[in-house]
Amino acid sequence: MKNPLNKEKIVSEIYDTLDGKYSVAEINSVIDEYIQSWQSMLRQGEEIKIKNFGSFKLKKSKPRKFVNIASGEAQQSSGRNLLKISLSKRLKRKIIKSIDIFKSFL
Q1: Angle 58-61-67 (CA atoms, 0-180°, nearest 5)?
Q2: If you average pLDDT over residues 2-29, what whole number do you get?
Q3: Of 58, 63, 67, 104, which is most buried with the most CB atoms under 10 A?
Q4: pLDDT attached to residue 105
Q5: d(Cα 18, Cα 27) in Å, to the nearest integer?
Q6: What is the mean pLDDT of residues 79-98?
């Protein structure tokens, strides 16, 4: 990926959209608070839904059996928390449409 979207770009876009009404530090602080809030909600088992974008939810994976290479002993891992992201139908359609347009140029 050449130019991945990161927090710095998001802050810059919001700053430009708001015509500098808020400082970069203030925007950065708001984004940090949102991220912390979402992390807390996910840890508590809540699902986060963003209209026309998708939803986020933590899902516990099943414990898995494995062999410790050093000792050769069979062990079982505890399940891990995995972030499950489900895209909205609208966003999926937009992505598919943009891919189809791109393919027409090839």
Answers
A1: 145
A2: 92
A3: 58
A4: 67
A5: 10
A6: 91
**How far apart are the C-alpha atoms of 81 and 44, rounded to whole Å?**
12
Q: Biggest alpha carbon distance in the chain?
A: 62
- Token pair for 61: 């994976």
CATH class for the domain made up of 7-104: few secondary structures
What integer pLDDT is reported at residue 101 of this predicted model?
A: 74
Q: Please state, in angstroms and rounded to a whole number, the distance separating the CA atoms of residues 11 and 4.
A: 14
CA gap 106, 98 in Å, rounded? 13
Phi and psi for 54 in degrees, rounded to 5? 160, -165
Residue 105 to residue 39: CA distance in whole angstroms = 41
Question: At 1, is the pLDDT very low, low, confident or very high (cuts 50, 70, 90)?
Answer: low
Return the percentage of the chain with pLDDT > 90, whole number.
66
Domains of the chain, by residue range, sit at: 7-104
Classify the C-alpha dihedral 29-52-13-101 as positive or negative.
positive
